[in-house]
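Thought: the user wants the 3D structure for the chain below. I'll pass the sequence to the structure tool as-is, report back what it returns, then summarize two notable features.
Action: structure_tool
Action Input:
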Amino acid sequence: MKIYTLHTKQKLPITVQEAWNFFSDPHNLKMITPEEMGFTILSGADKEMYGGQLIKYTVSPIANIKVKWVTKIIHVEPLKYFVDEQLYGPYALWHHKHFIHPIPGGVLMEDIIDYKVPFGILGQLVHPLLVKPKLDDIFDYRKKALIDLFGVFSPPVQNIKDKEAVDKYEILN
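Observation:
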């Protein structure tokens, strides 16, 4: 059984506290999820995030078919990271790490998702045709939605040497 990894990064012009407040509140997921996904929280998001928290959703990943999704927050380090795992839902495995890294002028948001598709070899055959493109679309939408919410990241530049260092960094990353 193959385990896939989706790894995304995005720089945002906000503070660590602002990033934590936004990303640790499950209600904000709806704002950064494509509408056609039909994302709805059913329960469990009424308290500040904590380890052991269960959050129940419905989503419609394909053809408006509603699927229940239950995640558990398994690790929380306030202002740094949190990890959720699917207990029940569309994947055979879903382990999602959300990191907040302070950088000059904002934060670097990093998501690392390890996941496994259901249905064995059939799921593996469908993965590059349906699952991977759908996940890429969801995270592309998320990047655009976060820019709409928080603006475009622009690193602070003190002098021309800093500008050259930033440009070199951008090329390498």
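Final Answer: Structure generated. The helical segments are 16-23, 120-150, 160-172. Residues 120-150 form the longest helix (31 residues).
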